[in-house]
Amino acid sequence: MAKKKLQSSPQKPPQQKVSGGFAPGDLHPQSGFPEPRQTQESTAQLRVRNQVIREIYIHNPNHAPVFKALDGVISMGVKGVYQTGVRNAAESYAGKSSAGDEFARIIAARNIYAQGTRPVVRVELEQACTSRRFWSAINTEYGDDFAGIKDEEKGRRSAYENFEKHGTVLLILDEIQHAGYRSKGSSTATDVIKRFISDAQVGLGLFGNEDALDLLQSNNQLSHRLQEPCDIRPLDLSHSSEQAKFTTFVQKYDAALVEKKLFTELSNLADSRTVFCLMAISRGYLGRVVALVRIAAKRAFLRGADHIEVCDLSHATRTWAIDQKLIDYNPFTWGLPGDV
């Protein structure tokens, strides 16, 4: 049986070639060593840098509908009386998790809720998520050391107590596609979520990949309890206005890398040739741009480079983007003999 596709398929970038594309010489390192050199010291530094780069957030136009929908879930909820949820199903590396984390920061910055509370919490579900593991994952996120040994009913009660104790009003369940597993004699986690909404403790954001779409639509009683979906859509790169948003995003991300002192020089990510390649790889999902740049940044650092270079982006494309099946060719070397 063929897998269902999300309603809006990713848009392809403009189909014209960019004049003055990368020449073979452009793919050679301009600073640092030709290849990465990893030592104990650089590995320790890499852990710190990884934390810093993960904290960078540039406003992502893909996320605006998600924020609006999650705001709606919170505003309509009345604890113990009525709660609802919303689905956010999108392709891998579309930026779902970062959207959830940024929304949590936005809510915290509004200072509506008391200091020290956790109004928005994101929980990542593990594979083969039984109803018991469902509650265990939630309680573990709140620091419950005994979450793994509680049965389903005790886990449910502990979760509701944690919501009350920590002032949680919205729970984001990430990787929701893992909630379709049923162990012998147990209900699926989707049935648990259905009751969860009926108990009206907190609002829900249900985030997952394309498989989540099939899963949630297969449970009619659950899907009828949800608001209109806020699935992340890619920028439509056939329009110049959307291309401008894309370019502005990568330009700001480049500046943030220098501002956070991760590199001493700009990486010129907004160069028209680089942008064209990033558009082709991401197909309009800015979350994919971020993921690719993070991988290239790691390689550039281990080379001792002043900034991310074309060779680092090309290498990240070949070893990550193609392997993840985000694209089936390397646009940085397209039409050029050989590869980096």
Can you offer a commentary on this structure?
The chain is an alpha/beta fold and 340 residues long. Helix content is 45%, strand content 6%. The chain is built from 12 helices and 4 strands; from the N terminus they run ααβαβααβαβαααααα. The chain has a 4-stranded parallel beta sheet, with helices on both faces. The relative contact order is 0.18.
Strand and helix map with partners:
Blueprint: H1 40-54, H2 64-76, E1 85-89, H3 96-109, E2 120-124, H4 131-141, H5 152-166, E3 170-174, H6 189-199, E4 203-208, H7 210-218, H8 220-223, H9 240-259, H10 272-282, H11 286-303, H12 310-321
Parallel strand pairs: 1-4, 2-3, 3-4
Helix pairs in contact: 1-11, 4-5, 10-11, 11-12
What distinguishing features does this structure have?
single chain, 4 strands, alpha/beta, 340 residues, disordered N terminus
Précis, in short:
The chain is an alpha/beta fold. It has twelve helices and four strands, in the order ααβαβααβαβαααααα.
List the helices and strands in order.
HHEHEHHEHEHHHHHH
Total strand segments: 4
Beta-strand level of the residues, as a percent range? 5-15%
What does the radius of gyration come to? Answer: 22 Å
User: What structural class do the secondary elements suggest?
Assistant: alpha/beta
- Given the C-alpha coordinates, what overall shape results? elongated
The level of helicity is: 40-55%
Q: What is the straight-line distance between the termini? A: 40 Å
Strand count, sense and closure of the main sheet? 4 strands, parallel
pLDDT averaged over residues:
89
- Output the number of helix runs: 12
Strand arrangement, major sheet? 1-4-3-2
Low-confidence stretches: 1-20
